[in-house]
Each structure stands twice: as structure tokens, then as C-alpha cells.
Fold:
Amino acid sequence: MSPHAAPDSLGAQPKTLTQVADKEWTLYRVGDKYSRIEEAPDPAGRIHTLNITREPDAWVINLLDNTARHIIDPGPTFFARLPMISTLKPNGQPDPDKEFQDLEFGNEVRFFRGHKARDLGVRKVEEKDCNALAIKSGGREVTLLLDPDTGKPVEIDVTKDGKPDFSIRYLSYETDLPFDPSLFEPPPGLKITESK
Structure:
């Protein structure tokens, strides 16, 4: 959710981090080697993106026309990243969001605990009381709202210079599920182009 995104736009459609692909947008993560992002179809843009990473290999797939780009990570490190905050910065300028570079889908709670987040008490998300933790660095503040019963993320709210920047609402958050290697293989029948 963002004040800059039209409510009916593709960017405003739900995304979830889960191992069960029953939502329109789904993110999968297994350790630092595997990730899969299933985006909602965008018929107007003639694209239905599926991103699969199995380090050092990655595929950017358009399911509407069965094409894909294959990229090989040159290393020397091989980490599948799912960052929440990624800010473009001018060359040679410091990263204003450096403090949040390791905040990724799948490690939200660990990140907040490791960065000694402030306890903001209880906040409501759709009539549900949630535990709120916050980290502020520079002009950016990130608040994590957790389900008090499960300890799982319910929402993340991000502000910049005191104004709402975006929010992420978790519709489902599943962990400790069996590993399914087939999720990290490109589907058959694709026309694959090699990229650098």
C-alpha cells in the first residue's frame, strides 16, 4: 500500500510471503539460496512475471508469452535477496537507507530484534491488537506489527521524513514447511534467452 499507487494498479495488489501458492501474489524464500516471486498478471502490460532464484541461477519469466531471461550470478557471494526497502541513490552518494539494507522478507522479526527496535506498545490492524516495534534511521522509520499470539508479521509501515511511504500487509505468513525443490525450477516449455 502506498499513497503514490492507484488503488486498482498492479503495484497495489496483495503480495504474501508463504509456501502455499493460493494468493494472487506470493513470495517464497528458503534460506539465502532460493527465492520465488509470483506476481499478479498485468493483462494491460501483457506480462505475468515469475522470478525464480536458485543461486547462482535466476530466471525472469513472463508466463503470458512463455519467455524467460536466464541470468547467472558471477559471485563471489551467492545470496538470494528479498529486500523490502531499495532506494536508488546517485553515484558516489551514501545510501540513505543503509540501516535497512538487510531487512528482507522472511527475516523481519530477526532484523527488528537484532537492531534493538523500540517497543511502541499495541496498535490495531483491522481491529486486531498487534505488538508494534520500530526502528528509525535518518529520515526513515519502519514499524513492524506482530500478531501477539503467533509472533508473525501482520504489517510493516514505512515512513520517510515523517510522511507515509508504503505499507506491506501480510495476508498469510507460513514457516517451517517442507522444502519443495520444484518451486525453484523454471516451468517447461519456455523460450529462454541468456542475459548478463
Summary: The chain has two domains: 10-80+179-195, 98-169.
